[in-house]
Design a protein that fits this description.
Layout (H helix, E strand, L loop, with lengths): L8 H18 L3 H5 L7 H14 L9 H17 L2 H10 L1 H4 L11 H7 L1 H5 L24 E7 L1 H6 L1 E12 L15 E2 L8 E6 L2 E6 L8 E2 L12 E12 L8 E4 L15 E7 L5 E4 L2 E8 L1 H6 L1 E6 L5 E6 L8 E4 L15 E7 L7 H13 L5 H11 L1
Helix pairs in contact: 3-4, 11-12
């Protein structure tokens, strides 16, 4: 066969395969591109791609052809390794296997990449991408903000529970337009600039990103005839007096939630909540210790020595019979079970605790002085240390 003789078809087929093999051999390994091993999970591959996409993003590397190439290279690797079937084919046949079928994706520009991997780029490049965004049907209901308010109550009120009237300045639904923001007989219209999507695509060279539509401030709609009362906001601010029930057992700095009494939502959205922070003032005679009510009980020396029985008031003014044991020591606690604060969590009751103290008079009559001295002399052989106790206050 001469040198100018036509080549058989098999020759050209083999030559094409040879060039394809050479092209595949020049490509970098997809796992190497993403910096992962062949045992990498789907989450590992996605994480690696996100990192590289951020690093080589064209917007961060303007007019940088190398960064642009690396960005597309990483995307090509991710497109294969993130697909279970394509990854299996690549593991078996390498790059050559990727061109064997018709499902292989080639990316010519950033728009192709953004549209194909919207879930990836949406999380760190600002969400939807302009023309691919979902068109809105109209005004979107928006929930109102939560509000905070401080309410001060006494320790007694926290013990018994109470009702408090508070005055709150917040947004309430506009009654003129019934929360629509428009004049009677009219309704919002879709924004013609963004076609109701609320966003527009901005192209800067290789990089394309989405930003809120300036014509409608990202709302996706326009109100041509706003309500004269709320000016299209669907709500107005005003004072409202609320009666708040504060439960028995509430503690200092507790947050009490009043449902749906925060700011009203917009365009029919739900209202926020009102959080009332409770401030409990101190009491001169009682204190709270956990769920216990603690009180100092002043007793005379004879009552401590001989014992006694008396009626004493609790925090809410109710009377309780207290038995003082003989030889009661100063600082000893006398407990009445179940007469303390109610637990908000369990409903169980704390205790009422009286702490015994000795009332020492600063001035006494001559008769009382003589009686104490006689008592001191009578017990000096029984408790020699007590004699000094009386001399300290009578000397």
């Amino acid at each position: 066969m001469g040198c100018d003789a036509p080549r058989p078809p098999l020759y050209y087929k083999q030559l094409i395969i040879l060039f394809n093999v050479h092209d595949h051999m020049s490509k970098k390994d997809y796992y190497e591109i993403l910096g992962v091993t062949k045992e990498a999970t789907e989450a590992d591959i996605k994480k690696a791609y996100r990192k590289l996409a951020m690093q080589h993003h064209p917007d961060r590397n303007p007019n940088n052809k190398k960064a642009e190439a690396l960005f597309k290279e990483a995307t090509e690797a991710y497109e294969v390794l993130s697909d279970k079937d394509k990854r299996a084919r690549y593991d078996a046949y390498g790059h050559q296997g990727m061109h064997a079928g018709s499902d292989y994706q080639s990316y010519g520009n950033a728009q192709d990449i953004f549209s194909h991997f919207g879930d990836i780029f949406g999380s760190f490049f600002g969400g939807g991408h302009g023309e691919h965004g979902r068109e809105r049907g109209g005004a979107t209901p928006t929930q109102g903000h939560d509000l905070a308010y401080d309410a001060t109550i006494s320790l007694k009120e926290s013990f018994t529970g109470c009702k408090k009237e508070i005055k709150v300045y917040h947004y309430v639904p506009c009654t003129t337009c019934k929360h629509t923001g428009t004049k009677s007989g009219t309704k919002p219209t879709a924004c013609k600039t963004c076609h109701g999507r609320g966003s527009q695509t901005v192209q800067q060279g290789f990089f394309a990103f989405s930003q809120p539509c300036k014509a409608c401030n990202g709302a996706g709609f326009l109100i041509q005839d706003p309500c004269g009362t709320c000016k299209g906001q669907t709500r107005v601010q005003q004072y409202e007096t609320l009666s708040v029930t504060i439960p028995a057992g509430i503690f200092n700095n507790a947050d009490l939630r009043v449902p749906n009494k925060g700011d009203s939502g917009m365009f029919g959205g739900p209202a926020g909540h009102l959080y009332v922070k409770i401030k409990v003032t101190a009491d001169s005679g009682f204190e709270r210790r956990g769920n216990d009510v603690v009180c100092t009980l002043m007793l005379s020396y004879p009552q401590l020595v001989l014992g006694a029985q008396m009626e004493v008031p609790s925090l809410d003014g109710s009377l309780h019979t207290v038995k003082i044991p003989k030889g009661c020591a100063v600082g000893q606690e006398i407990v009445i079970s179940g007469k303390g604060f109610r637990s908000l969590q369990t409903g169980s009751m704390g205790n009422l605790i009286f702490v015994a103290h000795c009332a020492i008079p600063k001035k006494i009559s001559n008769d009382a002085r003589d009686a104490l001295l006689a008592y001191d002399k009578a017990i000096e052989h029984e408790h020699s240390g007590i004699r000094g106790f009386f001399k300290k206050f009578l000397g």
